[in-house]
Design brief:
Mean pLDDT of chain A: 95
Low-confidence stretches of chain B: none
Structural class of chain A: mainly beta
Oligomer: heterodimer
Order of helices and strands of chain A: EEEEEEEEEEE
Radius of gyration of chain B: 14 Å
Number of helices of chain A: 0
Largest sheet of chain A: 7 strands, mixed
Structural class of chain B: mainly beta
Number of strands of chain B: 12
Mean pLDDT of chain B: 93
């Protein structure tokens, strides 16, 4: 089954404690992306990757890092989380971004206290 | 700036009736794709329908259809014979930059289907 898998689905952490949200896809897509969803703001892109070792900033990259060492994995790293990063996070992959369907993970609800 | 606007935050419809969700966008690109995604309470993002801007014919998928007005930059979603399972948040989205690097999403609309 074609899918994007994110872990964890829920996470509560404290300010400043580094965390990683994992994302893996089994569709051999070159393109992967991270979004955050906040009430009244829709989804906003954090980072994206067009291929292995190629990453670029989206609209709201501050406070986040990503890496793309393998095609299937695209982890999101928060080196020093702050309360304003409390949000719902989605990983997505696509065969042709903006042209074909984007496949989304199940979402990660992150709370930073 | 490339933007996607959904001006209605909430809508409600009686089961079996028809509802239309509005979306407008702004782009200087001539060729692009437009999407409607559904997010039910499970949070999963699900593609509802896709429209290619260079196609004049409106896309349809079963009970879902779009009214695409390219000159007006309008892309509304019509849901016919609404079902309780249609209760969800709906997002309009497009890659308006032409760079094929991201989707720009609207703020979303919460649709409630009443029994």
């Amino acid at each position: 089954e074609a899918q994007v898998t994110q872990n964890p689905r829920y996470l509560i952490t404290v300010t400043g404690k580094k965390l990683t949200v994992t994302c893996s896809q089994n569709m051999n897509h070159e393109y992967m992306s991270w979004y955050r969803q906040d009430p009244g703001l829709g989804l906003r892109q954090i980072y994206y990757s067009m291929n292995v070792e190629v990453t670029d900033k989206g609209d709201v990259p501050e406070g986040y890092k990503v890496s793309r060492k393998e095609k299937r994995n695209f982890p999101l790293i928060l080196e020093s989380p702050s309360p304003n990063q409390t949000s719902l996070y989605f990983c997505a992959s696509s065969l042709r971004p903006g042209l074909e369907e984007a496949f989304f993970g199940q979402g990660t609800r992150l709370t930073v206290v | 700036a490339q933007t996607v606007t959904q001006s209605q935050p909430e809508m409600s419809v009686q089961e079996a009736e028809t509802v239309t969700l509005s979306c407008t966008y702004d782009t200087s690109e001539n060729n692009y794709y437009l999407f409607w995604y559904k997010q039910p309470p499970s949070r999963q993002m699900i593609l509802v329908i896709r429209q290619e801007a260079y196609k004049q014919q409106n896309a349809t998928e079963n009970r879902f259809s779009v009214n695409f007005q390219k000159a007006a930059k309008s892309f509304s979603l019509k849901i016919s014979d609404s079902q309780l399972g249609d209760t969800a948040m709906y997002f309009c989205a497009s890659d308006l930059t032409g760079a094929n690097s991201k989707l720009t999403f609207g703020k979303g609309i919460t649709l409630s289907v009443r029994p």
